[in-house]
Amino acid sequence: MPPRLAWRAAELVEIAGESATARTLCFRVPGWPGHLPGQHVDVRLTADDGYTAQRSYSLAGPADGDLVELTVENFPDGEVSPYLTEVIEVGDQVEVRGPVGGWFVWRPESKAPVLLVAGGSGIVPLMAMIRARRQAGSRVPFRLIYSLRDQDRRFYAEELRRPDPGLDVTYLYTRSAPAGASRPPGRLLLDDLAEGGWPANFEPDCYVCGPTGFVEAAADLLVALGHAPERIRTERFGPTGGS
């Protein structure tokens, strides 16, 4: 049996805004063992009266010593995200446990082309893969299809706007598309994956992350396009979970 993961103290050292409802938090976690892009951590809060609440959040960046980066979207009815997005300040501490997960990960030594399909805040673990690729100097080509309600909800907007050889980004909007968008608002369709993704005969590794309905629909569309099910890795979340 693998050893049980221990809770570790995590001190917040930096905060950055991502959207009106989300921000990125960088914690210093002494003794952090490192992680792979695509893994996640459990975050635990403890109130003065001893009450605890915990949620899982995807890691937003590759391993970087004892630093752990999370991007958290505020779910107003949640127990953890409102604190992380509205209350916590630099110098405050929480507890983290991880890294967790070994299937939904990308390894820099992989040579297969990569297709990333994100729904909303499902971009977070996929961004960790993009950053890990850049960090490793990998020349594996990546394509990202990022579906979200409107442009104001984009995470990592400035970073994804910068030139990154070998990374192609396609934005899809479901509620309101910005002026000049090549596609009207709407849900992810077969043509979106056919045009923005890789042909199935390229045998890409496909990673899909987002709300459950989005993930199931995207995975079905990829199979319909001929992608091998064993090459489609999915990660899903609900309104009380993390991403």
TrEMBL record:
It comes from the Bacteria. It holds the Pfam family NAD_binding_1. Keywords: 2Fe-2S, Iron, Iron-sulfur, Metal-binding. Gene3D superfamilies: Nucleotide-binding domain of ferredoxin-NADP reductase (FNR) module, Translation factors. The keyword Calcium does not apply. Its cofactor is FAD. Residues 5-106 form the FAD-binding FR-type domain. InterPro entries: Cbr1-like_FAD-bd_dom, FAD-bd_FR_type, FNR_nucleotide-bd, MRET, OxRdtase_FAD/NAD-bd, Riboflavin_synthase-like_b-brl. PANTHER family: NADH OXIDOREDUCTASE HCR, PROTEIN RFBI. This is Ferredoxin reductase. It comes from Nonomuraea helvata.
